[in-house]
Amino acid sequence: METLEKKSVAEDPILEEAFMTRLLNGEKIEPKEWMPENYRKQLTRMMSQHAHSEVIGMQPEANWITRAPSLLRKVILLAKIQDEGGHGLYLYGSTETLGTDRSELIEQLHEGKAKYSSVFNYPTLNWADIGAIGWLVDGAAIVNQTMLAKTSYGPYSRAMLRICKEEGFHNRQGYDLMIAMMRGTKEQQEMAQDAMNRWWWPALMMFGPHDKNSSNTIELMKYRIKLESNDDLRQQFIDRTIPQAEIIGLTIPDPNLKFNKETGHYETSDINWDEFFNVIRGKGPCNKQRMHNHIQAHEEGKWVREAAEAYASKHKQL
Ligand code: 3HC
What we know:
Layout: H1 13-24, H2 37-56, H3 58-62, H4 71-96, H5 102-110, H6 127-148, H7 154-182, H8 186-205, H9 217-222, H10 230-247, E1 258-260, E2 265-267, H11 273-283, H12 287-300, H13 302-317
Antiparallel strand pairs: 1-2
Helix pairs in contact: 2-4, 4-7, 6-7, 6-8, 6-10
């Protein structure tokens, strides 16, 4: 396929048709190949926000590294958090193939022009939260990212394949931690149930608004960036997670929960969408703290970026 520079403003209908045929044939689109500007824009939006989420998602768990109950749990948590930082780097690197430098992407985040996942704006109050995050948050991420591994954009798909392998470890270690607490003292069981109560709904919110209220889903699915809808993915997560909770004695914090034998799916209460939109508008419990920490770390790391750039430019001249 000849490589074509980015077309000028007006899209070329013939190129668009050829592009859509490639998608229908299940082909992967690579960085230097022609793509509609909206395809590029949607991917840059989604992938950069995914990268922001991975990096900011390190904060809630990092609070508990020094307070892990054993050396083994500390090592596991350290490994997981380091993985998340690496996921962020893969995703910034993949996003940059679309033509926007990560410095600009991070500026958009700091200026409130870009989002990160709502779920990371909730506090981690005790050790059980670390289990709930690994089991529920990474469990939700696996459902979403397994779908994204089939996305039409080559670099994003390949990043997802790599990331999903590590998510499996994240999810298992979280569930293992919850099992240990549910086999523990009454107080530990109460802590685990309290964490379940606080993280269940924010995990369901990770999949975004209902399909009918999702402003991006139609275009994302037209371009085979997203292959399943927010509600379908959320339902998959609900159906696989509830049996895991029940088997270790945890209760789902939803009085209306019921299993529909005809559909084979669980039916839940509706999500508190006021809470969801409040959080993504910056009014969640930890939004300010997360952004403050991210900006501070970015400023304190300026000298590292400058040193790396100086080294790179010196070696380019040689
Ligand atoms: N948190 C923050 N913003 C959200 C959101 C959430 N949970 N769900 C939706 N939104 C935002 C969207 O970004 C969009 O705003 P924008 O147009 O300004 O970007 C708006 O709400 C409307 O939502 P849509 O449904 O139209 O948006 P999408 O179709 O893009 O769906 C998404 C949202 C499901 C997050 C989708 O973008 C996606 O799958 N992104 C890639 C995966 C990702 O980013 N996951 C975040 C978690 S990372 C993680 O879990 C790391 C793991 O290691 C723990």
